[in-house]
Automatic annotation (TrEMBL):
The protein's name: Tyrosyl-DNA phosphodiesterase-domain-containing protein
Annotated region described as Disordered, given as residue ranges: 57-89, 104-182
BP-aspect Gene Ontology terms: DNA repair
Species per Swiss-Prot/TrEMBL record: Schizothecium vesticola
PLD phosphodiesterase domain segment(s): 508-542
List of residues binding substrate: K274, K515
Classification via Pfam families: Tyr-DNA_phospho
Biased composition (Polar residues): 158-170
Length: 620
């Protein structure tokens, strides 16, 4: 039944709904307010990151689970907290005296490494003037159990443990991924087929010198177990709700080893981008994952999978080579994005020491929190930036498209957003949807609008799990705590229900936190197809909205979230794993280039019942 209080243009009381969901997930009476300080879970109406419960399972639920929700054969038993852990508004590295811990550790080692002159001040400027992001930390018990299982499970349960990582000679030595690669994250209990990768294989802690990391959610203890803090300096691009919390975060870490960058934020929105810049002796690794820095997002609990783009860029041997480099569009947008996040300028400039030429076949797509009204700014970000990247790769066309979009969260979507994304994937600047919307109120032909909606419904498929799929996953509904959608949005008369399909992973019992969009043209050859892999879910918060600036009467792009992703052409060469193919004929052009993680064709979701979408709040 539709929510009679649904407000398609306003901000509803998400606070109360999420408070009730938290109470139910903890077995508490939702009508009784707790005595603790309230967790600030306020968000915009189409907030696509309504995280409440970690994807873990308590012992009672695990024991009572039916056979179709039990762990796959060969997977390790993973202890978990007796209660599902609730999302915290308290941010990264607070409440733990990291400074003291790491200084003691360094003292015991009897050495301190020389400060890296690239680190600088690490962009500690930038305003964070809103209290609404929920930065969740994973429970230590769950992380420790997951790490233990991860270190022992692979060799014991999977005789085939090839990582698919090889090295290739480049100008300055051997690079594992000189041409770029897209892989699925490793998942505990699943066979390794060559198209997956572990976070340890990405970070290479024994070689890593500097790591610039960003994430929406963090588990600091788990992360510091993956990095050698004595060897590696870190810059963390993170959210803090105010100056006091910034100072607390900075004071809790050894400043010679860990620095922070706090991107500017709107009053509502999320620092949702996931980006890793990893400096090794001879090369820079650029990593764009769909998952956060949490153990379960990297497969260690065996319940969740993600995807990740990786490319290794060799270091120039001389200043002359550096100065002669013409940056690719990928590099230009990456540096622009980092600069807008207020990362230290010296660090950004140091990226020019690396050869970006191999990124010419890729596009870097981003959304930047804020309103962007200059002609240069609005065209570069949100879905306008997506269209710009499509055109830069020579993939623009007015031919009909088929879009297959896997996402982990969905906002209060209307056909207008689908239309904007569809046009952007054709290479449009954003003006086509903007101008049609601007004239719609002045007698736009209704029949034409209806025909356009029919085209969208027939050519766009959005993959999101059903209640049945979540219940049949490895640990049932306790695995679905970071997969977010609300029944009030689904039941809104403006929501395009026809486009949703059940998202089932080709890995049995595993749920997906991946964000990947496949774009194909049935009338063209396979080389015109491409995929987006990144952090953006299906919402206006993620992709933005182009409107008219009231003062200048010019277009203005407004995004609530920070997001980033990569466009990959179907014909891109690379070191892509040759894992077992589960690709249907409609997406076969991506085989060996971008893994297709979902079963095809996806079944349409039902309006209600087991085949209805998974609604997080309705199930806790």
């Amino acid at each position: 039944m539709a929510d009679n209080n649904y407000n398609p243009n306003g901000v509803d009381d998400d606070d109360e709904a999420l408070r009730i969901a938290i109470a139910l997930s903890l077995g508490q009476d939702p009508t009784i307010a707790t005595s603790n300080a309230p967790v600030d879970l306020t968000g915009p109406e189409d907030d696509d990151e309504c995280h409440v419960v970690e994807p873990t399972v308590n012992a009672k639920t695990r024991m009572a689970a039916p056979s179709n929700t039990s762990a796959p054969a060969g997977s390790s038993y993973i202890p978990a907290p007796s209660q599902p852990a609730v999302s915290s508004s308290y941010s990264l590295l607070t409440g733990l005296d990291r400074k003291k811990m790491e200084e003691e550790r360094l003292a015991r080692a009897g050495k301190k490494r020389k400060a890296d002159d690239q680190l600088g001040s690490a962009g500690e400027g930038g305003k964070a003037g809103r209290p609404h992001q929920r930065v969740k930390t994973e429970s230590p018990a769950a992380a420790a159990a997951a790490t233990t299982a991860a270190t022992s499970a692979t060799s014991a349960t999977n005789p085939q443990t090839k990582s698919g990582i090889s090295t290739e000679k480049s100008g300055n030595g051997e690079l594992p991924f000189p041409h770029g690669v897209v892989k699925r994250t490793w998942c505990n209990g699943q066979p390794r087929t060559g198209d997956d990768i572990k976070i340890e294989e990405i970070l290479q802690k024994d070689k890593l010198e500097l790591a610039v990391l960003s994430s929406f959610q963090w588990n600091e203890e788990w992360l510091l177990g993956k990095v050698d803090i004595e060897r590696t300096k870190m810059v963390l691009i993170a959210f803090a709700r105010d100056e006091r919390q910034r100072q607390e975060m900075q004071n809790n870490v050894p400043r010679s080893r860990i620095r922070f960058c706090f991107p500017p934020m709107l009053a509502m929105g999320n620092m949702h981008s996931k980006l890793q810049l990893l400096k090794f002796e001879e090369y820079l690794r650029v990593v764009v994952p769909t998952g956060n820095l949490m153990s379960y997002d990297w497969g260690e609990t065996g319940v969740m999978e993600n995807m990740v783009f990786i490319i290794d860029l060799p270091k120039f041997e001389s200043a002359e080579q550096r100065d002669a480099q013409t940056l690719t569009p990928f590099a230009e947008e990456l540096l622009y994005f980092l600069r807008m996040q207020t990362l230290d300028e010296k660090l950004i400039s140091s990226l020019r020491n690396y050869d970006f030429s191999e990124t010419s076949r890729y596009g870097f797509v981003h959304s930047m929190a804020g309103s962007h009204s200059s002609s240069d700014a609005w065209k570069r970000t949100g879905y306008c930036g997506l269209g710009r990247a499509v055109t830069a790769l020579g993939l623009q066309s007015n031919d009909p498209l088929q879009l297959d979009y896997v996402c982990a969260s969905i906002g209060a979507v209307k056909h207008g957003l689908l239309r904007a994304l569809y046009y952007a994937c054709q290479g449009d600047s954003g003006l086509k949807e903007y101008e049609s919307r601007a004239t719609g109120g002045k007698g736009k032909d209704i029949t034409k609008a209806d025909d356009d909606t029919d085209v969208l419904n027939q050519n766009i498929r959005v993959y999101f799990p059903s209640l049945e799929t979540v219940n049949r996953s490895k640990y049932g509904k306790m695995s679905g705590g970071t997969i977010c959608f609300e029944s009030r949005w689904w039941n809104a008369p403006t929501f395009p229900q026809q486009v949703l399909r059940d998202c089932r992973s080709t890995r049995s019992g595993v749920l997906m936190h991946s964000k990947v969009l496949f774009a194909t043209r049935p009338s063209a050859d396979d080389s015109s197809a491409f995929a987006y892999v990144g952090s953006a879910n299906l919402s206006e918060s993620a992709w933005g909205r182009l409107t008219m600036d009231r003062s200048t009467r010019a277009p203005k792009m407004t995004c609530r979230n920070w997001e980033c992703g990569v466009l990959v052409k179907a014909g891109s060469p690379g070191e892509h794993g040759s894992g077992s193919s589960n690709t249907s004929s409609s997406l076969s052009m991506f085989e060996g280039v971008v893994p297709v993680p979902m079963e095809l064709p996806g079944l349409p979701l039902a309006k209600e019942g087991a085949r209805a979408p998974w609604f997080l709040q309705d199930n806790f």
